[in-house]
Every structure is written in C-alpha cells, then in structure tokens.
Design goal:
Elements (H helix, E strand, L loop, with lengths): L1 H9 L1 H20 L1 H29 L1 H21 L23 E11 L5 E6 L12 E4 L2 E9 L4 E8 L4 E5 L4 E6 L7 E5 L12 E4 L11 E10 L6 E7 L8 E7 L2 H10 L5
Antiparallel strand pairs: 1-2, 1-12, 2-5, 3-4, 3-12, 4-5, 6-7, 6-9, 7-8, 8-11, 9-10, 10-11
Helix pairs in contact: 2-3
C-alpha cells in the first residue's frame, strides 16, 4: 500500500494533467453539438466492436456445448430411423412414430466424444468419454455419421475403450449391397483407409465403387450401416474367392464424435444362442 501511495505521489502532476484533460474533453463534448455527435458515433462504434469481440469469444467457448447438444439430437433421430427402417422418408406425410421413448426403440444411440485414438498400430483402439454410468457395456457397436468405427471392449464408470475397425483382430460381418452376398471386412494392418472384404466368390458381380454395408448377421450393428466402397476386385489364384479391397468410409485419423449402439433386443437374442449354441 505504501508503494502505491508513493507511486501516486511521485507522478501526481501527470495524473492531475490527465484528470484536467478528461474534464476539458467532457466540457467540450457536453456544450458543443458537433463534438457531442462525433463523440457519440466514435464511442458507439468502439462499444459495438468490443461487444462483437466479446460475443465471438463467448460463442467460441460455447461450441463444445453446442456440438454436444447436436450430437445428442442426432443420436435420438438416428435411433428412430434405425428402429423404424420402413419410414417413408421421401413422403410429405409425418412418419408413423408414436413415441420417441426407448421403450419403443430397438436401437438406442448414445453420443460420445473420442478422447484418445490410435491408427498407426496393428491392433488400434480408441477411448470415449462415456461409460457404465451412461449405460455402456462391452460388446456394443460404435459408429459415426460416416459409418462403422468399431465396438466397445472395456468399460469403466465414466469412460470406455473400444476396438477400432483398424484392428486385425476385429472382423466385421458385412455384405455387398447390390447382390446381398455376405462376407467379412477385415483390416490388414497397413493402410488406415483401406480394408479387405473376404469370402465373396467369383460369381458375385463386384464392381469398383460398389457399396459395402453391415449385414443383419450380428446383434452389434443394425443392417446396412456404411462400411466402405469397393476399390478393386479380382479372383484369387485358385479362382475360389475374390480379392476385394475397399476404401473405408470413416476417416479414422479425425474421429471426434461417435455413437454407441445399444441393442434393446440383444439380451433376448443372446439367450436363444446360449440355449442352443450348437445351432449357431
């Protein structure tokens, strides 16, 4: 406090000058119409610029909250679409949805943010900021707006670790959309943008650009979720299977928001499989 008083006393002449200068400017502005108008315009522009900058900063820091709200809304809408595959989406009439509660849904999508992700290993994983407190369980499928991402492996209260599609131990049941022929998508551990579609025979007419989607032969993913498009296709040396290379639809290097798929009928499906395992 003593140093502050000493500083003010030392520069008392300068501060007195500033005070008198401000008082003179106030008198001029108050008693002259032209100066008052110019001052009002200047201060209005300055205050407007400050308010705009403040608003931009506020909007920037609220982007995360807005993105989270959009992800939750997208998850709700995608849940409705996945649980009602026959919705007349090209019709002007309202869709026949009685309720949007989870009681009427087969699939529920839980939005989450990716907090860790690897793409350079042979068996890549990712981590999201949702866990058992949010209803997540091991074995649930994970997608984003572009297609299949992977599946959940381990879950804690607030986080979950997933096995990426970029994992040589994570085959995905898929199909050639045009022919409906089933196969398996498996990453070979090299290029994070490409994978192989296995077990298609040469009689299947696979062309470059054809779409590969998830099949209905699993309880992890709904059918016809995008996996990728055909990059090349040719028979193997024995003409037994096709060597099909696909371009993956998901950009794994820029994963941000994902959706975890909760299948509400999976316990019933699993109970039947466990009752008669020899049939499956």
């Amino acid at each position: 406090m003593g140093q502050l008083l000493s500083f003010l006393y030392r520069f008392r002449a300068f501060f007195t000058f500033l005070l008198l200068e401000a008082f003179c400017i106030w008198l001029i502005v108050r008693n002259n119409d032209y100066q008052r108008s110019s001052f009002s315009k200047t201060t209005a522009g300055l205050v407007g610029s400050i308010n705009e900058s403040t608003e931009n900063i506020s909007e920037y820091f609220s982007l995360k909250r807005v993105n989270q709200e959009l992800a939750e809304e997208n998850a709700r809408l995608k849940s409705l679409l996945l649980s009602n595959p026959a919705l007349p989406l090209d019709s002007l009439s309202p869709p026949p949805i009685v309720s949007d509660s989870t009681d009427s849904l087969i699939y529920e999508l839980i939005p989450a943010e990716v907090v860790r992700n690897s793409i350079r290993n042979t068996n890549n994983t990712f981590m999201i900021n949702k866990g058992s407190n949010d209803g997540l369980e091991a074995g649930m499928g994970v997608i984003n707006s572009l297609g299949v991402v992977g599946k959940i492996r381990d879950v804690s209260k607030n986080y979950a670790q997933g096995i990426s599609l970029l994992n040589t131990r994570n085959p995905i049941s898929a199909k050639h959309k045009i022919s409906e022929r089933m196969g398996t998508v498996l990453w070979e551990g090299v290029n994070p943008q490409r994978a192989r579609l296995l077990y298609l025979t040469p009689d299947v007419g696979v062309e470059v650009g054809d779409t590969i989607v998830t099949s209905s032969f699993n309880s992890i993913f709904p059918k016809e979720i995008m996996v990728g498009t055909v990059r090349s296709s040719e028979p193997d040396k024995n003409n037994t299977y096709l060597n099909v290379e696909i371009d993956l639809s998901v950009e794994f290097g820029s994963l941000s928001f994902v959706y975890v798929i909760k299948n509400h009928v999976k316990p019933e499906q699993d109970s039947l499989i466990n009752t008669n395992p020899q049939l499956f």
